[in-house]
Amino acid sequence: MSRTPDSKSEATRQRILNAASARLRTHGIEQTGLRELMEQAGLTRGGFYFHFPNKDALVTEAITQAAGETADAYVSLADEAPAGRQLQALIEYYLSPAHRDHPATGCLVASLASETGRAGKKQRTAFSSAIGVTLQRIAPLLPGESPGQRTLNAGLLLSSMSGVLNVARALPDARQSEALLAAAREFYIRSFCGE
Question: Are 47 and 12 in contact (CB under 8 A)?
Answer without folding.
Answer: yes
